[in-house]
Write a structure and sequence with these properties.
Layout (H helix, E strand, L loop, with lengths): L2 E5 L13 H11 L3 E7 L1 E2 L4 E2 L2 H5 L6 E5 L10 H21 L4 E6 L2 H13 L4 E5 L16 H19 L2 E4 L2 H5 L11 E3 L6 H10 L11 E6 L8 H13 L5 E6 L5 H10 L5 E5 L3 H10 L2 E4 L12 H7 L3 E4 L4 H10 L2 E3 L5 H13 L1 H19 L1 H4 L1 H13 L1
Length: 407
């Protein structure tokens, strides 16, 4: 039985907030016949607090869990986070040296320095290393801090570490084609690679939506336009708030904007809605996954809302948006995703950061029910074919199997 370590700083364990990608992957690989250790941090990224490690160790998981100490941070982009990851990287190296004996390491990038610790250990011990590229640092950090020269100097270590990781990969999984191909941008490597969208388990999504249907009250005459995710600098929630005001001014008072989630800009944008007396927008706050599923299914339109400069590609929420079977308005400027929206026909692309353009797009889909419903049908079909983890994650297992058989 091949022994694999799945290394991630961001995973949702029992009863926590966050993403389930790596938890699911550990279960998936265990069921495929591998001995799996999840190596993660003592610090819970979404809760911004230390985990109760002793309590977790008493819980029932079908894979092993190893914790590395990380001091933590309060903000997603600040020097404390960089220092925290640096400490985690050193502790990862120490853990691998002590516990080792793996046939393959599978690590997410970012954090770049943590992935580099895994890559260098794999190289020194002659085992394959697979990078799971699900974001780009420092590109994403420039959304928060983009000062000519200063940002380049400040972020150089992140760029250097990323290129080092890419030079050491035995295989690459990307959560989009763009992310899959990023390791080969500055260096030619002939290694196996595959795109596997973050996706979801559609059966779990549907069950959650059904069980929470009665908890999400929607008036018969309401038309919901919803966003679910982080309320931060990459996401163009301000334009959604002001579009609600514009639509009310056009007499479309039954159109309600629903904002699900939390983040550093939530208070500021709630205050904006209050000051301008925009009553047709509601900040729902954080909703557990199953309740979020019910909100998305009860919505009429979903908005994949990003600012123009956002570097994101095909993000985590897309699987849930598509599973809901609703028309999508997309403002993300990723050429890959804009092409997908158009070619697969599940939504419309519009320019970001323009209140009237967003209001016009909402009004057009509001007025054209058959167009809207057809987009929704196409969305659900794409979800089932390309984003359902029990099918799509087979590509990851196939890549791992090839690499471990070679060893």
């Amino acid at each position: 039985m091949k022994k694999i370590a799945v290394i991630t700083m961001g995973v949702r364990l029992n009863g926590e907030k966050g993403y389930t990608r790596f938890r699911y992957l550990c279960d998936f690989l265990t069921e495929a016949g591998y001995q799996v250790d999840l190596i993660t941090t003592t610090f819970q990224h979404w809760e911004k607090e230390q985990r109760d490690v002793e309590k977790i160790k008493k819980e029932d998981y079908q894979f092993g869990i190893q914790f590395i100490y990380e001091p933590g941070y309060k903000k997603n982009v600040d020097l404390k986070r960089i220092r925290s990851h640096k400490i985690a990287a050193k502790n990862l190296t120490a853990l691998l040296e002590k516990e080792g004996n793996y046939d393959l390491l599978y690590a997410e990038i970012p954090p770049n320095d943590v992935a580099l610790a895994a890559a260098e250990y794999a190289k020194s011990h002659g085992i394959p290393f697979v990078a799971d590229v699900n974001d780009l640092w420092p590109e994403a950090m420039r959304m928060v801090l983009d000062i000519p020269v200063i940002s380049s100097v400040l972020f150089y270590p992140l760029l250097r570490d990323a290129e080092k990781v890419y030079s050491l990969v035995s295989g690459v999984i990307g959560t989009s084609d763009e992310y899959r191909d990023r390791p080969f941008q500055n260096q030619k490597r002939i290694v196996p690679k595959a795109t596997v969208y973050v996706g979801n388990e559609i059966s779990v999504f549907d069950k959650g939506a059904e069980e929470n249907d009665a908890l999400v009250a929607k008036m018969e005459n309401e038309f919901w336009v919803s966003y679910a995710g982080t309320i931060g600098t990459s996401y163009d929630i301000r334009t959604m708030v002001l579009a609600a005001e514009e639509l009310a001014g056009r007499g479309k008072k039954d159109i309600r904007i629903k904002i699900l989630g939390g983040g550093p800009m939530k208070d500021e944008l709630e205050a904006l809605a209050h000051e301008r007396q925009i009553y047709n927008v509601e900040f729902v706050g954080y909703a557990p996954y199953d309740k979020m599923a019910a909100y998305l299914k009860k919505s009429d339109i979903l908005v994949n809302s990003f600012v123009r400069k956002a570097p994101q590609s095909i993000v985590t929420k897309i699987g849930d948006y598509l599973a809901a079977g609703k028309a999508m308005i997309n403002t993300c400027m990723s050429p890959e995703f804009r092409n997908k929206v158009e070619s697969d026909g599940f939504g419309v692309n519009i320019e970001p950061e323009d209140v009237n353009i967003l209001a016009d797009a909402i009004e057009d889909l509001y007025d054209n029910e058959e167009k809207r419903l057809e987009m929704g049908r196409k969305a659900r079909k794409i979800a089932e074919e390309q984003f359902d983890r029990p099918k799509s994650y087979r590509k990851i297992e196939e890549l791992i199997r090839k690499l471990t058989e070679k060893k």
